[in-house]
Amino acid sequence: MCASFFTLLIGVVEVDGTRMSSNSVYDQFVCRVWLTRTSLYTFTGISTYGILLTALERYAAVIYHVWYHNNVRITVCDVNMSVFHSS
Is residue 70 classed exposed, middle or buried when 0-12, 13-18 and 19+ CB atoms within 10 A define those classes? Predict the structure, then answer.
């Protein structure tokens, strides 16, 4: 979701880098983060990793269904609690 948002922003927002100063915090941010597309690559990598883990989990559930049923106990509540407590 974030990668899609940043892809849209990159297509819409155009930054002219010719009049940047080294003293401005905004110009430093734009130069180091926005123009290098760091956030786009980071969110794309995170998204790809999440899709990969979901695919592997579904693969294990289909191919090794007896083992998966006996050994994996993930509920929506457990996942939500781990997400909120880790931040």
Answer: exposed
